[in-house]
Input
Amino acid sequence: MVNILFDCPNIDDFYEELKEYFSEDSKVAVIAFSYYDDFVYDNDSWKKVYGKGIGPCYFETVEPLGRFGVPEKNIEFINYFADTKESAEEKIKKANTLYFTGGLPDRMMERIEAFGLTDILKNFDGVVVGYSAGAVIQLKDYHLTPDNDYPEFGYYKGLGYLDDLCIEVHYENKDVQNESIRRVLKECKKPLYVTHTRQGGLVYENGKVRTMGNVDVYMP
Output
């Protein structure tokens, strides 16, 4: 398995560093479960966000992958409102790449579990890509720093692909972020990778981490 964890969906900004992981043979299953309940609540509202040729999150996913040569026809979104567990599992089984979108990581995990996809996702063995929420849920446990969506610091359960690092996304040198960094280093005692907003990410492969762009690394 290769894990790609990014701050934002602009993975094509790092074309040279990531091109080996994508090709015209890539088949991508997009887990589009991280949406906000106020904006997505049925199939029609889901399409406005993720729908083919319509949704902004469709374009921000498909266009960067297309730059790596991934054909649009090879990218399938899993729709929480229109797919069944069986059709979703079929998309995942056909894929050699998983893509987790940004948004709300705890709600994404809740929806994955409610849909019955936890086991098949945990057992996936291929390239796993995610940004923001889709990055942190790749960890066994992740933290969220207080912001507009999460008023209090908290630890949450992820999918468990990785268990030997922590990640802080969307870093902008705010006091609340620096306090979270200090707390995580003290409590988790793991290397902490801090990605600056829209400026980078990291690849985890064969037990080794490679950073790209503007990423700070703190050791416990």
